[in-house]
Records
---
Amino acid sequence: MTFPLETERLMFRDWTATDLEPFHSLCADPSVMEFVGDGAPWSRERTEQFIGCAREMSRTLGFCRWPVIYKPSSAVIGFCGFVPASEGAEIGWRLAKDSWGQGLATEAARAVLKHGFETLGFQRIVATVQSPNRASIRVVEKLGMKAESSFFRNGREVILFSISREI
Ligand SMILES: CC(C)(COP(=O)(O)OP(=O)(O)OC[C@H]1O[C@@H](n2cnc3c(N)ncnc32)[C@H](O)[C@@H]1OP(=O)(O)O)[C@@H](O)C(=O)NCCC(=O)NCCS
């Protein structure tokens, strides 16, 4: 699949200046951030920093945590994408609450995972999920990722999932 990526309902592209407002509104929502980091909603500066890092990563590495655009409304509803990890990359996702429960994270992650293996050439893709985050664990399972280990980060239990490229 070529970039920008598209699925039936979603599109992924590089970040633009107008993405800050819609993306920040979901990062400032406590229910979205419950199982992210230490659980605190982000300040505008933190969201700006995230977008700045993603743009730099896209420029230097050719991948990042891309904005997810919901095609029917052209709205930015979250992100899905990669950061570098040993032997490959770590996949992650975050969607606005009013987009949950429609299979959108799974649709996004399947396309991004395929892009990671087939176009970016990753051999192994991992995901880290806080253990009470049942929705995210379900997404990971639907992608065919397997739990490998667990550890503590920010005083919270995190499960490491992985999937390797089919040879
Ligand atoms: C995790 C997240 C991206 C999932 O988005 P989504 O579009 O609702 O996900 P999907 O609809 O593709 O799949 C969710 C699955 O979890 C299930 N699920 C949702 N809440 C659940 C819960 N509390 N307990 C068990 N399963 C749950 C759904 O039923 C669905 O599974 P199914 O298809 O077998 O029915 C979204 O909840 C989110 O953005 N959360 C906040 C940010 C976050 O936690 N990011 C991940 C950090 S690792």
Note: The first strand starts at residue 5 and ends at 6.
---
Amino acid sequence: MDAPDQMPQRAPVRDVVEYELLFDCVHCGLCLEACPTYLLTRAEMDSPRGRIYQMKALAEGRLDADTDVVRHLDFCLGCRGCETACPSGVHYGALIEQTRAWVEDNCSRSMPERLKRWVVGALFPYPARLRLALAPLRMIERAGLRPMLERAMPQVLREWIDLLPPLNGSGELRTEQESAHEGRRGSVAVHHGCVAQVLADRANRNAEKLLGRAGYGIARLGRTVCCGALDLHSGNRRRARQFARANVRAIRQSGADFVISTASGCSTAMAEYGELLKDDPELGAAAREVSARVRELSRLLVESGLPANDRFECTLTYHDACHLAHGLGIREQPRTLLRSIPGVKLIEMDSSDLCCGSAGSYNLTHPEAARALARRKADAIIATRAEYVVLANPGCQFQIAAELRRRNSSVKVMHLADFLALAASPPQD
Ligand code: SF4
Ligand code: SF4
């Protein structure tokens, strides 16, 4: 390992990352125990410090971009737990996104890896394609044959399908959608996402209802495309920029004062459009403006004053989605909302901000590591003996629910927006 570097010692020979950013790391190792992949393998090269070392060596031409290096870089969840732990202010999220774009253009992967990544990239950012792909499964589920299908599937597909929530009534119909309206606190556009609008649109609609009740107006986006987070994580920055440009235009045209997403990775991606499009001559300034309008549901609800709620007797625990906690620094607001409901008892789980293994499409590309992290998360949840686990990201919701289903656990997994809506109007007996 290199001695601590305070300033560039060599000129980079490859344009892997913004080279100067690498020198924020002083190799102290304080991030290691916060890194889920290091906790799994205990290998330096699977730690934030080890990956930064590899990025620097790649940039300086001291390391070949062979399959080992690509494997260590791909193994990173992009959870940014290391950023929270780092006393030196290392911008690890930016470093890994830039490195992955370079890897994408300069390295090769095995055929099965390429195929998996192609399927994810061709399907998930496009809601119409995803709906079409899921249509047969929806029919099979309606006929009660999903368990039989899963047993007959090859393992890779079985693992993917296992992660899906129940498809009947998963909220893809928008019959109860809040219409656009004015509000005394300014207007909010809810970005319905790509995968989220197909598999977890109920959370979007509940977020709109909660915001409406809190006094916010609802603005509508003329066109919603993927926020680009999936592409940023996989190294496809070109397409991420295309998505970002479309969203910047749509958000500006909506006239919304604020924009939120019920998926934490999407909120973080939109909050970073200003950086992503900083060199765009047409939309650079607009992107910065849009990023400044990005908020988070719980923050807006807390700022509007806590709503009066009837009693809702239950015990629950809260899981911190990575990008919400480590990307946007939102930890207290969801807890404040939950604690404000009379009858709710919030029990903290161990390491609530340790990644559950979902991490965008990580649970599809790295099923074994993702499953190991899901097991840890499920252990922590079950140890609280809570009736509900509440979280604010659909990906975590699917990942944790799948693991709890495998264990026949009775713990109910709910998005924060859905839980708040349920507590505000519980079902009548
Ligand atoms: S982003 Fe997460 S998995 Fe990647 S190095 Fe940082 S803590 Fe580890
Ligand atoms: S905590 Fe920060 S400075 Fe220390 S090794 Fe990790 S990334 Fe580098």
Note: Residues 237-254 form the longest helix (18 residues).
---
Amino acid sequence: MEKGAVIKHDLKKAPKTGDWGYMSPKVDKSRCSGCATCVPFCPEAAISMVKDPEAKNNKGEVSSFDYDFCKGCGVCSDVCPMKAITMQKK
Ligand code: SF4
Ligand code: SF4
């Protein structure tokens, strides 16, 4: 059976795509459940889960965006079950 994979950038080869968009995601740390659903959906592999003292879930993690590669597509915001990600104008 095939299994999914989260592709990570080879930062030496990947073109930075962060300048393409005019919107940018922002996470509400009090709403993020730490589920990591958003991570594999990002087409730019720009989301990672990080420890954060402001996290309000038992993992102590929230999503974090690499704005050098985030192109502002909003997929992460659409798939977040907690509605924790909002898209804002840059
Ligand atoms: S999908 Fe939403 S709740 Fe889950 S880690 Fe991402 S931002 Fe947090
Ligand atoms: S807006 Fe698009 S590119 Fe940026 S983090 Fe979300 S899913 Fe990835």
Note: Residues 25, 42-44, 46-47, 65, 70-76 surround iron/sulfur cluster (ligand 2) (CB under 6 Å).
---
Amino acid sequence: MNSRFRSGIAAGVFLLAAPAILFAAQQNAPANTIEVTAKKYEFNPSTITVRQGDHVKLAITATDRDHGFKLDGYNVEQRLPKGVPTTVEFTADKPGTFAFRCSVVCGLGHGKMKGKLVVEPAGAAPSPNP
Ligand SMILES: [Cu+2]
């Protein structure tokens, strides 16, 4: 077997393996990242729905000034510096509706800067076998 032939095989193996490598990379990609923006005086989206058991990753960007993100029931509180996407991660292990709010006093409407996280219970989908 000459070396040219061998390198041809190596290239062929690489081409076959590449899609598998790309697939694996996609599996590891943060599929659950939810992009959120915060500005006076709202979060967008203001309602975030996930499934119980989901590992939730929020990438929250405060666009106009510093804000904060405080999520009731999940012990999550994070300052959101202006212009920097801030990652907030938690596992949605409790079903229900949880309020989140801005935790940095940002102006007259600060108290109204709220949203909600809806955690749909695992097994909420109707079972095919009653
Ligand atoms: Cu605020």
Note: The pocket of copper (II) ion is lined by residues 67, 102, 104-106, 110, 113 (CB under 6 Å).
